[in-house]
Amino acid sequence: MTQIHIKIMKPKTGGLDPVTGTLRFRPVRRHFDAAKNLIIAASFDANLSEDGELTVDLLPTTSAFVWQVVELADTPQAYTRYVEVPNSQTKVEYADLVEVDAATFVPKDMNGSQLLKVRHASTQSEAEALSAQYPDVLVFFNETASVTKAAAAMSTLESITAEAQTNAALARSAMLSARSSADSASVTQSDLNVLASNANTLAASVANDSQTVADTANAVAAKGESAIATIDSTVQAVKDKAEAATTVLPSTGTTEGIPEGTTGEAGTGSTGETPAKKATVKEA
């Protein structure tokens, strides 16, 4: 069952007023329902509330019947509609129901349009020929041929699907291989960066050591030069002192009883070229 909500109003000065009255519902044409019950074209009435509203449960329509609704039955304002009722779990507004032609059950908004035309063929080739000859006609052909054709199409689709899955697997494998290669390349590059850093550090260390050796060699050479200069100065000083000592030695003879190189009176301690005095000797 589908719930249909109906609300009828009438105009008044400055607004609308609710309408009261009866609505009459009747299925058009006798028909069998899904449970194989025969449903006759009998009607039932339902009254609007004081607010002009009504909610009624109706059977969903099929290709066998539609609903006739007589609005405000037995009054001068009575009006008849023929509508389709959808199979809905939610409430449907009466204004949203599709209104159809009572004789053909074709929706009124399709009046004047071309109806669907159907032709039958015994084989697929015949159906293709009819379809080309009558482009506006729907052509049906033998069910067995359709099933065979559909099975062949399904087999082709399965083959295409299997090939696509294989290609996808190969693509995934290639992608994983590429990722692995990229990871290996990244690791190799990292190792090369470490080696380069170590080489730079070692080169800097060698350069520092070379500079230290050079500085030490320069310092040793400087000290060697200073030591040689000091030795040369000392040797020269010794030579000068030796030469000075040789220059001041006396060149005169000796006096008997007096050490060579001394003159003057005893006990004077003086030296020089003062004439020597003769010694006086007393006899015992």
Task: Give a nutshell description of this structure.
By secondary structure, the protein is α+β, with helices and mostly antiparallel strands. It has helices at 124-133, 143-247, and strands spanning 2-7, 9-12, 15-18, 22-28, 31-32, 38-39, 44-47, 53-58, 66-71, 79-84, 92-93, 98-99, 117-120, 137-140.
Largest sheet: 5 strands, antiparallel
Number of strands: 14
Q: Round the mean pLDDT to the nearest integer and report it.
A: 80
At the first level of CATH, the class of the domain at 2-110 is Mainly Beta
What's the tally of helices? Answer: 2
What is the ordering of alpha helices and beta strands?
Answer: EEEEEEEEEEEEEHEH
- State the end-to-end distance: 190 Å
Radius of gyration: 69 Å
Roughly what percent helix?
A: 40-55%
Explain the layout of strands and helices:
Layout: E1 2-7, E2 9-12, E3 15-18, E4 22-28, E5 31-32, E6 38-39, E7 44-47, E8 53-58, E9 66-71, E10 79-84, E11 92-93, E12 98-99, E13 117-120, H1 124-133, E14 137-140, H2 143-247
Parallel strand pairs: 1-11, 13-14
Antiparallel strand pairs: 1-8, 2-3, 4-7, 4-9, 5-6, 9-10, 10-12
Notable characteristics:
284 residues; alpha+beta; Immunoglobulin-like; five-stranded antiparallel β-sheet
Description:
The chain is of the alpha+beta class. Among the domains are: 2-110, Immunoglobulin-like (Sandwich); 116-181. 40% of the residues lie in helices and 21% in strands. The chain has two helices and 14 strands. The longest helix is centred in the C-terminal third of the chain and has 105 residues, at 143-247. The protein is elongated, with a radius of gyration of 69 Å.
